[in-house]
TrEMBL record:
Database matches in SUPFAM superfamilies: Nucleotide-diphospho-sugar transferases
Organism: Sandaracinobacter neustonicus
CDD domains, alphabetized: NTP_transferase_like_1
Segments forming domain Nucleotidyl transferase: 8-128
Family matches, as Gene3D superfamilies: Spore Coat Polysaccharide Biosynthesis Protein SpsA, Chain A
Record keywords: Nucleotidyltransferase, Transferase
Molecular function in Gene Ontology: nucleotidyltransferase activity
One of the Pfam families matching this protein, by short name: NTP_transferase
Name of the protein described by the UniProt record: Nucleotidyltransferase family protein
4Fe-4S among keywords: no
Length: 239
């Protein structure tokens, strides 16, 4: 087995507008699903894989998130990337946090999804598939047919070698991005700290043939809306 990166970025700064009214009184990562916050579930996925350093970006209700992390994560090296003054989106948030991230490559995980490991854990799966000579970004994918609580038409096509290409407008693609990825810092060279989506860097990597995916072997739940919280709880209850 390949070594799992020791460092991971947890993307936790979003406004959680699609999660209202649950996010009227708490940041989205602190919404509970079956008695456990989304943030704790994401961190649990990373800890199970051997991650020891977390960088967490904060914006909406940042003090609540920091207090939660200070109270819960005593054994991890937790660093805060502060976006209180300007929300930087996924790409900008990762770019700003790079100086705090000690590993290269490193992991990045969204705080509004739930992963349940299959025969090979999600973190180990990414580490085992990573090839720095071939890729700058490796995305954990799930087949559209197994994308629980996800109503979209899919995100990517994946060829036999794992290279990813975008879904064409008006079409359906067989794979959905799960919010978990492994990234090289090379991908961010020359990139300014400003608000932008990771889609910009993924498209650049894809154009260079350096955007890859690997299929998740377990279960995945897209918990991006208040309705999805109830649906996910119902599905988790029958596992």
């Amino acid at each position: 087995m390949s070594e799992v990166p020791a460092s991971a970025m947890v993307l936790a700064a979003g406004l959680g507008k699609r999660m209202r009214p649950l996010t009227a009184t708490r940041p989205k990562p602190l919404v509970e699903v079956a008695g456990k916050t989304l943030l704790d579930r994401a961190i649990g996925t990373l800890k199970a894989g051997g991650v020891t350093q977390l960088v967490v970006n904060v914006h909406y209700m940042a003090d609540r998130l920091e207090a939660h992390l200070n109270a819960r994560e005593k054994q991890l090296d937790v660093r805060i990337s502060d976006e209180r003054e300007l929300l930087l989106e996924t790409g900008g948030g990762l770019t700003k946090a790079l100086p705090l991230i000690d590993a290269d490559p490193f992991l990045s995980i969204n705080a509004d999804n739930i992963w349940i490991d299959g025969p090979v854990g999600a973190t180990q799966l990414l580490a085992d598939r990573w090839n720095p000579q071939e890729m700058d970004a490796l995305l954990l994918m799930v087949p559209l047919a197994r994308a629980n609580c996800h109503g979209g038409p899919g995100d990517f096509h994946m060829d036999a070698a794992g290279r990813l290409s975008r879904r064409k407008p008006g079409r359906v693609a067989p794979f959905v991005y799960t919010g978990f990825q492994m990234l090289s810092k090379r991908l961010f060279e020359g990139v300014a700290v400003e608000p932008f989506s990771m889609n910009r860097l993924w498209d650049r990597a894809a154009a260079e043939g350096r955007l890859y995916g690997v299929a998740h072997q377990g279960l995945w739940f897209d918990v991006g809306t208040a309705a999805a919280v109830k649906e996910t709880e119902a599905l988790l209850g029958v596992l």
